[in-house]
Write a structure and sequence with these properties.
Layout lengths: L15 E4 L3 E6 L18 H9 L4 E2 L8 E7 L2 H13 L3 E9 L5 E5 L2 E2 L5 E2 L2 E12 L9 E10 L6 H8 L13 H11 L6 E9 L6 E5 L4 H10 L11
Parallel strand pairs: 4-11
Antiparallel strand pairs: 1-2, 2-4, 3-4, 5-10, 5-11, 6-9, 7-8, 9-10, 11-12
Organism: Spirosoma liriopis
Pfam family, one: PseudoU_synth_2
Protein name: Pseudouridine synthase
Amino acid sequence: MEVSNVVPDPRQPLTLLYQTVDLVAINKPHGLLVHRSPIASDASEFAVQLLRDQLGQRVYPVHRLDRKTGGVLLFALTEAMNSVMQQQFAEGTVDKTYLAIVRGYTDDEQVIDYPLRRDDGVVQDAVTALKTLQRAEIPLPFGKHATSRYSLVELKPTTGRMHQLRKHMAHILHPIIGDRPHGCNKQNKLFLDQFAMNTMLLHASRIQFTHPQTGEPIVITAPVQAEFSRMLTTLFSGYDSAILQV
């Protein structure tokens, strides 16, 4: 079985989820950087570049997704809209929803209120609301256990700290599958060996905001991508796809 963790072919167009004269949203593939970064010198393709070439105009990412995270990524098409939308994200008025597959059985619902330290030492408040959508126990031995348990969770961050969801899930001992360095390396190796899977199973499934010019509520959703879908089928046999319509 071939490992599926490659950066998307730049010859293939990005999937557009929403487009107006001043905004456009894509379903960012896992493994694709938003923009050039000195800490990822191995990358040669970036969402900003690919979308610019696809649309034939300049684009402005108004927020960020980790390289390993897939899902809704919003761009402005003018400098003015970029400024206004960045302000909305900074003020926390954009509602964001993520899906993740994590190790173990999570609580039905939980608020993770755990401050995070930046690289420069500054400690920032960080809050994430968790809701468990489905649980699974599969006959796959791991360590001293005869089976393995996993949960499909919905995550809603009310703050926007770097790697917040990844760090919060590691903090409550339910790391996201495929996460490095915050996840469980033994679980990641298990998924690589058993399922030929090394994608991080974190997906930005939905954003909601008020259009700055029209005042209209905008909701943009992104379907999960191939590897996330494969792991849902593999781990959660008979899972209810309706629960992903968040």
